Amino acid sequence: MPTSGVVKYMKKYVAPSVLGCDLSNLYQESMDVIKGGCDWLHLDVMDGHFVPNLSFGPPVIKSLRKHLPAAYFDCHLNVTNPEIWVKPMSQAGASRFTFHIETQSSQESLESLLQSIQFYNMHTGIAIKPRSEIPLFID
Predict the structure, then answer these.
(1) pLDDT tens-digit series, residues 91-108
(2) I need a labelling partner for 80 at 20 to 30 A (CA). Which of 4, 8, 16, 43 fits?
(3) What is the pTM of this model?
(4) Using alpha carbons only, what angle is made at residue 34 by residues 10 and 11, rounded to the nearest 5 degrees?
(5) Can you state the subunit structure given in the record (predicted)?
(6) Phi/psi-derived region of residue 18, left when phi > 0, alpha when psi is between -120 and 50, beta in every other case
């Protein structure tokens, strides 16, 4: 089966979500998956508004970062207003800030958010819910 050049050379990462672990033992379970060979830790931050669930936020990530200084924290923000989370997530130790495109109302708001994430020295990820359409303002 032919593959495009992009797919052929795309690096793949293993990033297990910590939501599947015993959160009362978050550090040890995170260490177990790191020792098991995962590349990143996937941290789902949920505000109870954008998605019905509520998880954890910057204080938990900051605590985990203190014990795992070299780990790559792939933070997936399932939140309504990701722009207010950029600085706190950076200060907590997020490596990647992934937000949902559905939270952006215009090209200007998207560009502002992307610039903010870059300013705070995090990598950027963009997520989309399975049944969502990509907004027309995305080039």
Answers:
(1) 999 999 999 999 999 999
(2) 16
(3) 0.86
(4) 5
(5) Homodimer.
(6) alpha
